[in-house]
Amino acid sequence: MPSVTPDDAPPLADLMPWSVAPPRLGRGWPTAPDPASLKARWDALMKAEGPDREALFEPTRSRTPHSAVGRLPGQTSGTERLARACGPCPEPVRVLHAPFDEQWLIPDHRLVDAARPELWRVAGAHQVFLVETPETPEAPGPRLLATSLLPLLRPGRVRPLYRRPDGTEPNLAPGLLEHLGDRLGLSPAPADFLAWTLAAVRPDLTVPLTEDPGLWARGVELGGRVLWLMRRDGDRPKLPGGRRPYVRAPLPARPLTIHYDRDEETLHLDEGRVSPVPPQAWDFEAAGVRVLEEWFTARTAEGEPGTLAAIRPAAWQQAWTSELLELITVLTLLAELGPQRAELTMTAPVTAAELRRAGVFPVPEPARRPATVLDHHEEGPEGQFALI
């Protein structure tokens, strides 16, 4: 974390005022590490009828097969009640299921207890979602994650960088960028502010700001690299030759255990071996869990027999091996940035009191609410148009 002393650093909740609770699925089977399993689960649900379909669905107080809900913004699923639905599975979409764990979701509002349509409505090519993770003093990890995918992580808030899907209205306190620009003698963009936040944010989710242009440039550069590694939607990250992880012994068809040999810097998946894996990659934690261990468990845990979650791949997927090697690379590179963040000593602060004097704080209430972004009709229950 950046080197700091107690001061009047502005809270992230005021700097990026509009936030949304993460989606709450209510059932695990609509997500999976592979899309084929989701389509097979959907087919099994469609083949079941009456009480059997209801049992497979796993109803809650918020959702049953008889719930009437509209279509998720930007998606093409049906809107008839699920109890009498038929037809193919809606095309699964990529989501951030857990820290650094990209999985797949059936994007059907009828399957999700609380889908947060306002998040789906602002998703787009320019969007970045900033996701808060729980503070765990005994297991420090990143307090913020950044993703281009819809995040499903709970319980922290989700703060979109933009209030509209085309990236034209930043989710920042009105006047903030202009005030920072005057102090810095620069014209910071919303993406610059996001990068600075990823580099400078503290465990209490305050974000110290500076009017030192040199310090700002270093923080933006450092945070920009953090952002690139977390989003993983551009050039693929690579470690230098000799440090790149490779599969040294083939992974078995159905690995059941994972353990790490610190002396040999080797990750063992049963008799399969991956190396070199630096200790900082294996030790990397987020939201209180070891990322690599949690990622592996999500791909090997067996679902309860007779449930849709039990429909899983019969063998380890080749794509998962590629994802594992990239994840090791990402965690290694992120861990290496930790000391640079710790050296980001704050000088020439722009405090919350200064922002109040400048009229940036308090943030006007409309900035804490979603923008009106409905540019086209959205289909409600049973094919009716949604009124928003």
Show the helix and strand layout.
Blueprint: H1 12-15, E1 31-32, H2 35-47, H3 50-57, E2 93-98, E3 101-105, H4 117-122, E4 129-132, E5 144-147, E6 150-151, E7 158-160, H5 176-184, H6 190-200, E8 209-210, H7 213-231, E9 246-249, E10 258-261, E11 266-269, E12 272-275, H8 279-282, E13 285-286, E14 289-290, H9 291-300, H10 318-342, E15 349-350, H11 352-357
Parallel strand pairs: 2-6
Antiparallel strand pairs: 1-3, 2-3, 4-5, 4-7, 8-15, 9-12, 10-11, 11-12, 13-14
Describe this structure in words.
This protein is α+β, with helices and mostly antiparallel strands and 388 residues long. The chain is 30% helix and 13% strand. The chain is built from 11 helices and 15 strands. The chain has helices at residues 12-15, 35-47, 50-57, 117-122, 176-184, 190-200, 213-231, 279-282, 291-300, 318-342, 352-357, and strands at residues 31-32, 93-98, 101-105, 129-132, 144-147, 150-151, 158-160, 209-210, 246-249, 258-261, 266-269, 272-275, 285-286, 289-290, 349-350. Helix 7 runs antiparallel to helix 10. The two termini are 42 Å apart.
